[in-house]
Amino acid sequence: MTPQTSQPLIAAAWMTGAIAAFSAMAVAGRAVSSELDTFETMLFRSLIGIVLVVSIGGITGHLREVTTRRMPEQILRNIFHFTGQNHWFYGVTVIPLTHLFALEFTSPLWVMVLAALFLGERLTWIKGAAALLAFTGVLMVVRPDTSALNPGHVAAALSAIAFAATAIFTKKLTQTETITCILFHLTVIQAILGVICAGYDGDITLPSMATLPWVVIIACAGLAAHFCLTTALRHAPASVVMPMDFARLPVIALIGVLVYQEALQALVVLGAGLILFANWLNIRAEIRQRHAKQTA
Description:
Layout: H1 7-32, H2 38-60, H3 71-94, H4 97-104, H5 107-118, H6 125-142, H7 151-173, H8 179-198, H9 212-235, H10 238-244, H11 248-260, H12 266-295
Helix pairs in contact: 1-9, 1-11, 2-8, 2-9, 3-7, 3-8, 4-6, 4-7, 4-11, 5-7, 5-10, 6-12
C-alpha cells in the first residue's frame, strides 16, 4: 500500500482516538451536570485547556507556531463549536446517550453538503449512498416520534449543524495553520465566550473538589479529540473523515448499558451495524479513488 492510498487508514486511526475522547467527555459531562451548567463547564474546560496547550506547546517548541493571520476564521470556527458543544452538553443530561450521538451523527450529512459548497470536494454517488445508509441507521436507533421530542433532542440536532460548520472551518484552517495554533485559539476564544456566557448574571459556580477531576477529564478529552480530529482532516477529506465518527455510536451504546443501565434494543444494534457498514463503504471508496488517481 502506497503512502497516498494509506491516508484514509491513517485518518481512521486518528479518529479512533477522537472516538475514545468524545465518549469520555460524555461520561464526564453527565458527572458535572448536577453542579455546573453548560457555560460553566465550557469555561473551566477552556481555562484548563489553555494551561495544557501553553505548557505542552512551550515544552515541545510548537508554541511559536501560533499566529493571528486567520483570526476571522478562527473566531467563526470557535463560535460554531462553542454553540454546538453547549447544546451537546445539555443533550448529555436529558436524553439517552444513544439518542444524543445518533442525532449528532447527522453532522456528516451536513459536512458533505458544506464541503462540496465551500471546499470544492466532489460529492460522489458512493459518498451519498454511504451517508444515506448511515442516516438510515441513525433513524433505526432513534426511531423519531415527534410527540416524544424534548428540548434535548432539538439541542442534539442543532449541535450536529454547528459541528458540521466547525469541521469545514477546521479543514480550511489546516491548509495553513498547525494543530497547536488551532488548539491555542480554540481554548482562548472559547474561554472568553465562556466568561461572557457563564458570567452574564454575575454568578459563576466554581467546581467542587469532587467535580474538579471530571472537569479535568473533559478538558483533556476535549483537546485530545480536537487533536485527533484535526490530524485526521490533514490526511483525508472532511466528507470522508466525519462519517468515520459514526463508530462512536456502538461504543456509547455499550457505555450507556454498562454505566447508566440504558436499554439496548435490537434496532439499536442493527442501526449501529448499518452505520459501521456505511463507514467501511465510504473509506473503501476513497482508497480506491486515490489509488486510481495515482495509477492514472
